[in-house]
Amino acid sequence: MSAATLKTTAGIMLAESDALVRSLPGLLDPLSEADRRRVLAIGRHEVLDTGKHIWRQGDTQNGIYLIESGRIRSYYAAPSGREVTLAYWFGGNFVGGPDLFGTGAHMWSSVAIERSRLLFLPGPALRGLALQSATIAVALLDALAFKARCYSAMAQMLGTRSVTERLQRLLIFLSNIYGSQHGREIVLGIPFTHGDLANLIGATRQWVTVQLSRMQARGIIRYDRGLIVILNLRALDLEIV
After folding, report:
1. Which residues does 138 contact at the CB level (< 8 Å), separation at least 6?
2. CB neighbours (10 Å) of residue 63?
3. Per-residue pLDDT of the chain (241 residues; tens, 9 = 90+)
């Protein structure tokens, strides 16, 4: 799947509806050229290597990061050390909410899954722009509303679906959003480890390994070194009540 295609989607998360992640424009897209220049003028470009954190849970907020390219994982770490992935975000989105203007502590961590180019927008300067331009303020509100819907959908899935249903739903979501058709097979364009999938659905890596092996034995999927191929999408869909 090309980078251009990835930029048309918001990210990867646990959600009941695929439509939730299809329609979000980039943060700068709704802005006039003049407002776009004003936002870019307060920014500072940074490059983050794979595995490097933008911040960690509990760090003091001081602004947001607009993702220009790459992939960022946001996750929550429990006191036990267990992690729950909230989402993977791509170019056009931002990380750093809900306190856009740089107050309080970060509620979760954000780390680069691949080399990423970011634009840092300092909170106080961003607040100033929001006060000056209704268009910029509305764009920020729309982006926050989108993230609130995403996290609400994730909470609903975690609270109302069994872990088996969550895995099935995630595979359907990934096939619809990031899959490419090859004959009767759907190849997911982004590799995922068992741990990645487990963190997204609130399960253990060992449990996911067992379930994927069972699905493979039944001819529903094929899994090899992070590459998932959906062989029978209908079988996945029929098993979700």
Report:
1. 30
2. 22
3. 333 333 345 678 887 766 665 556 678 888 999 999 999 999 999 999 999 999 999 999 999 999 999 999 999 988 888 888 888 898 888 999 888 898 889 999 999 999 999 999 999 999 999 999 999 999 999 888 888 888 888 888 888 899 999 999 999 888 887 888 888 899 987 888 898 899 889 899 999 999 999 999 999 999 887 789 999 988 887 655 4
- Phi/psi of residue 208, each to 5°? -60, -40
Backbone φ and ψ for 103, nearest 5 degrees, come out as -135, 155
Q: What are phi and psi of 119, to 5 degrees?
A: -120, 115
**pTM above 0.85?**
no
Would you state the structure tokens that stand for residue 28, as one six-digit string? 């700068």
Angle (nearest 5°) at CA 225 between 176 and 237: 30
